[in-house]
Design goal:
With 766 residues, the protein is an alpha+beta fold. Helix content is 50%, strand content 22%. It contains 22 helices and 30 strands. This is Diguanylate cyclase (GGDEF) domain-containing protein.
């Protein structure tokens, strides 16, 4: 044991201790170096900012002068006799001081005699210039075209001299000592701004500007560049923590020093966090000691842990590629297995991919609970395993979705036999906690190599076939064909084009089918029916694009568009009720009622003239969301009609629970009136039932006089069908109503001029 501890100390603890010590030492050196580098970079940055500011003030002086020196008005006013001193002060000297903080300005005549002087914004006698003439001597000579005096060369960072011609401006700028103060000075010829005014060469006036660098300029420089304690001194005597940078004139003469306290971020950080860093280092050493002690104790457990890891590795691998609920392979393993099967089968090998989806599985979850749903999924997987060969692959992809790979098949017949056995097995009841659950299964099949040889493509096509099986009634199987793929592409194209049509609204139109009174004499309402006239496909049947809209989520946008158009029609024909169909899909939105109410209010339509038609499937869903939405709509004044009554499974309890206002008898019962006693009995029973409940009854699909007569005798409230009118566009409806009113006018108002029913005024048909 002692030998083991010694080896552990030599091989583990000693290298760890040495590595820690070296790492801490290197970290300390790196920290000191980083602090110094950071401070040096900060000092250099502040020096560069000061340099740029000094250089910038020279250029700014010239630009400021150019605003008044290159100006026809200045030239004209300077040549006036007598001189307009107020104008000069307001537009030159005084203006430059107020606008740009120029400390001094002087104007010299062509003979270099001062005619105007402004000091600190106050106009002074021109003779004040004589006190500084010597300092401006070199600038004036250079600007007048004399031989320019040479500037003594020097390398100091603040030295600067410039002689510039840009456009019509001619100026010279210098950095010099003026009246014992560091100054930026600029001299510029006063010239016209264009050729309209002639200025004789040599007769120009001169504008001289001065900006002292030890006054307000220092405050601006410190504020703009965040320089602490910036000051100017004649001698280089920086205080503690300060630095001094020399300032020299263009002749190289030392003017003084800019002194400030530089920002030292590295030192600041070190002072702030130094104690904390020391504590952290001590903590690291302590933690390393504790870790070493813990590591020694862990050595004994290491072999045991390794053994346990090896034991659980197989289990983890199994869980990574198998479904926990059923024990079947999951999607990852299914993909790998299918890839291997396709590779081994080759281009000529035949195999089938089956995609399965349980039907009515949601109903099991909703009625018996999710535990019952899990039990159904588990038993379904077991039934599949009993039906298939050991060489076939079964996988649960997720939820109630399964996939199967059948290899070594001879043709469609083998696959169809398997599908039939699966359908028969699923139709047997599932015993769940003493209760029976019934589900179905839809199967989509893709055959290789007929449908392709790539896994992704085969699974996509099997999904298409599965969708086909579900859309054709469920509880069936379908084998993929090229026509299915084309159907999917067409549906996708229709979806994109419908989305575009909803944006533009140009290809969509509303048609209106009249609803008439019991005698068939008067139009009392219109049902709004959307039509899509595609620019290339022609008229697309409503059941085609509406189904796509419901599947893709476009039904909400389509419903909004229809309602907005119907509101406009309601305002156009205020005496008629406009019926608008609502899809059950729309009721899945929690804010449907508020959305519909908002559209009607925005359009300014009367809710009492809008009727919403729903289907029996919405009642069968019996959700609180739908019931609440319908209640809100009725409270707002809208009427609710139950469309296609008799085709579903709605009962009296549903009618009472949802409180509809109208029942519309489906055309499938109306079309057999006079031919089948059963249809006549059903219609009579529906009308009697609705009248007993105080509901309005509308019969759809009335096409013959016999049907009309029977419905009238039975007590039907309203009728709708081709006997009275097909669905017509808005302009034809308007023509129809106008012609009816004209006919009534010619016959007088004694009989059909108006018809009162619940306060509604309607137009007569005959």
């Amino acid at each position: 044991m002692h030998q083991l501890n010694w080896r552990f100390s030599v091989r583990v603890l000693l290298p760890v201790a040495m590595s820690t010590a070296v790492a801490l030492a290197l970290a300390a050196l790196a920290l000191v170096w980083a602090v110094r580098q950071s401070d040096e970079i900060s000092i250099q940055r502040q020096q560069r900012m000061a340099e740029r500011s000094i250089r910038a003030v020279l250029g700014e002086l010239a630009k400021q002068q150019e605003m008044v020196a290159v100006w026809n008005d200045t030239v004209l006013n300077l040549n006036k006799k007598p001189l307009d001193e107020k104008w000069l002060h307001a537009n030159i000297g005084g203006w430059l001081h107020v606008t740009f903080d120029q400390d001094r300005t002087y104007i010299l005549d062509p003979n270099d005699q001062a005619i105007d002087a402004v000091i600190d914004g106050t106009r002074m006698p021109p003779e004040e210039f004589e006190k500084v003439r010597a300092s401006f001597h070199e600038l004036i000579r250079g600007l007048r075209g004399d031989a320019r005096s040479s500037h003594h060369g020097h390398s100091d960072r603040f030295s600067h001299a410039e002689y510039l011609k840009s456009g019509r401006a001619v100026h010279d700028t210098h950095l010099l000592e003026l009246l014992g103060r560091p100054s930026a000075v600029s001299a510029m010829k006063i010239v016209p701004e264009n050729e309209e005014l002639i200025q004789k060469p040599g007769s120009e006036f001169l504008l001289l500007s001065v900006r002292f660098l030890d006054g307000n300029f220092l405050n601006q420089l410190a504020e703009q560049n965040l320089i602490e304690g910036l000051r100017f001194s004649q001698v280089n005597e920086p205080g503690e923590g300060e630095i001094g940078v020399p300032l020299r004139s263009d002749e190289g003469k030392l003017i003084g020093y800019f002194i400030w306290k530089p920002e030292l971020p590295g030192t600041t950080i070190l002072r702030t966090f130094g104690p904390s860093i020391a504590v952290v280092c001590l903590l690291i050493i302590g933690v390393m000691a504790l870790l070493a002690r813990s590591l020694r104790r862990s050595m004994g457990k290491l072999r045991k842990v390794i053994a346990e890891l090896r034991e659980s590795e197989a289990q983890a691998h199994h869980l990574a590629f198998h479904d926990v609920l059923t024990g079947l392979p999951n999607r990852a393993m299914f993909d790998q297995s299918l890839d291997r099967t396709l590779a081994s089968a080759g281009p000529q090998g035949r195999l089938a991919i089956l995609m399965l989806d349980l039907d009515r599985f949601k109903h099991v979850n909703d009625t018996l609970g999710h535990q019952a749903g899990d039990a159904v999924v588990r038993e379904f997987g077991q039934r599949l395993a009993l039906l298939l060969r050991g060489s076939d692959t079964i996988a649960r992809l997720g939820g109630d979705e399964f996939a199967i790979v059948l290899s070594g098949i001879n043709g469609h017949e083998d696959v169809e036999r398997v599908c039939v056995r699966i359908l028969e097995a699923v139709r047997q009841p599932f015993e769940i906690a003493g209760k029976q659950a019934f589900v179905g299964v839809s199967i989509g099949v893709a055959l290789a190599p007929d449908a392709g040889l790539e896994r992704v493509d085969l699974m996509r096509k099997a999904d298409i076939a599965l969708y086909q099986a579900k859309s054709e009634g469920r509880d069936a199987y379908r084998i993929f064909t090229a026509a299915m793929d084309e159907t999917v592409k067409v549906r996708s194209t229709i979806e994109e084009e419908l989305r575009l049509a909803l944006v533009t609204g140009s290809d969509l139109r509303l048609f209106y089918q009249p609803q008439v009174d019991v005698d068939g004499q008067s139009i009392i309402g219109l049902e709004a029916l959307v039509r899509w006239h595609h620019p290339t496909r022609g008229m697309i049947a409503p059941h085609q694009f509406i189904a796509i809209a419901e599947e893709t989520g476009l039904i909400s946008s389509l419903g909004e568009w229809v309602l907005r158009q119907a509101c406009l029609a309601s305002k156009r024909w205020p005496d008629l009720t406009i019926a608008v169909n609502l899809s059950p899909v729309q009721f899945r939105s929690s804010g449907l009622a508020e959305q519909l109410i908002g559209i009607v209010r925005e359009a300014g339509a009367d809710p009492r003239r809008i009727e919403f038609e729903i289907t029996e499937s919405l009642l069968l869903d019996d959700s609180d969301l739908s019931r609440c939405a319908l209640k809100t709509l009725r409270q707002e004044g809208f009427k609710i009609a139950l469309d296609d009554f008799g085709t579903g499974y709605s009962s009296l309890s549903y009618l009472r629970r949802f409180e509809v206002d109208k029942i519309k008898i489906d055309r499938s019962f109306v079309q057999h009136l006079g031919q089948q006693d059963e249809s006549m009995a059903i219609v009579t029973a529906i009308v009697t039932l609705c009248r007993a409940m105080g509901l309005t009854v509308t019969a759809e699909g009335v096409e013959t006089e016999d049907q009309k007569r029977f419905l009238s005798q039975t007590g039907c409230s309203e009728m709708q069908g081709f006997l009275f009118s097909h669905a017509l566009p808005e302009e034809q409806i308007e023509d129809l109503l106008i012609s009816l009113r004209d006919r009534l006018g010619s016959q007088g108002n004694a009989t059909l001029a108006s018809y009162a029913s619940g306060g509604r005024r309607v137009a007569a048909l005959t």
